[in-house]
Specification:
binds magnesium ion, binds adenosine-5'-triphosphate, six-stranded mixed beta sheet, alpha/beta, 32% helix, 10 strands, 7 helices, four-stranded antiparallel beta sheet
């Protein structure tokens, strides 16, 4: 594979959780390798507790592995200083969770703009992008409403817009449709596919849904702390 096409390369990742008293240990990831190409859509499957969220957290620098290395565009995440880690979380990676985590006191537009506040420079560029994203996600008419006035599907679409405001290279989505009904889940998936296609953003989705996994380019299942390539999703 041409190294220029590789976005993320994780090698020999290990992650074990220990409880606070130093007692029981829970080995979650062990000798895990992963390569993600630019623009690739990847599903991470596996039973509850298999380590999907743990893996997404490591890739997103929300947690650190016990050992092993994650490279993003060739650069080891463990070499980033604190400021660079914050910039990575705010700009390079976008996060979407099962629940939208929008701020209840802010409108949708304000929520979408929030991650752009630390950026230096032109506010009008961020405002324009927020407008484009709200339109793309089909929630333009609701932009001045607060989350409590909107449906779960609309809020989740706003959360995706918020994750994209700083033009990330990768969207890390942890069961993004897990709190939605079938219709809203399918609409959100359509939008995520469009985002990948039109904005060139890589997508890693942790999901229990075979229907979602089938729409990704590559499907992995976590088994005994490692990724197994799933080839029989049809
Ligand atoms: N901060 C933590 N401290 C201790 N154990 C943890 C912690 N986070 C996760 N675990 C444990 O690690 C294992 C993997 O958790 P993880 O959340 O990654 O699983 P998951 O595949 O995302 O599951 P689900 O499908 O239910 O979301 C679980 O057994 C969990 O209890
Ligand atoms: Mg999880």
């Amino acid at each position: 594979m041409n190294p220029d096409n590789i976005l993320i390369k994780a090698e020999n990742l290990h992650k074990t959780y220990r409880n606070a008293t130093g007692g029981a240990e829970r080995r979650v990831l062990a000798q895990l390798d992963l390569v993600i190409r630019k623009k690739e859509k990847v599903a991470i499957m596996g039973p509850s507790g298999s380590g999907k969220t743990t893996l997404l957290n490591l890739i997103g620098t929300l947690d650190i592995p016990d050992s092993g290395m994650i490279r993003f565009e060739g650069r080891s995440l463990s070499d980033l200083d604190t400021g660079q880690v914050l910039a990575f979380r705010n700009r390079t990676a976008g996060f979407v969770f099962q629940f939208h985590h929008l701020l209840p006191q802010c409108t949708l537009l304000e929520n979408v703009l929030l991650p752009s506040i630390p950026n230096k420079g032109d506010r009008s560029a961020a405002n324009h992008r927020a407008e484009d994203l709200l339109q793309f996600m089909g929630i333009w008419d609701q932009r001045h409403n607060k989350p409590a006035e909107l449906s779960g599907g609309e809020c989740q679409r706003a959360a995706v817009a918020r994750a994209l405001i700083n033009q990330p290279k990768i969207l890390l989505a942890d069961e993004p449709t897990g709190s939605l009904d079938e219709e809203n889940a399918s609409l959100l998936m359509e939008l995520l596919m469009g985002i990948n296609e039109e904005m060139g953003v890589s997508l890693i989705v942790a999901t229990h849904s075979p229907a979602i996994a089938r729409r990704m380019d590559t499907v992995y299942r976590i088994e005994d702390g490692k990724l197994v390539h799933v080839t029989d999703m049809e």
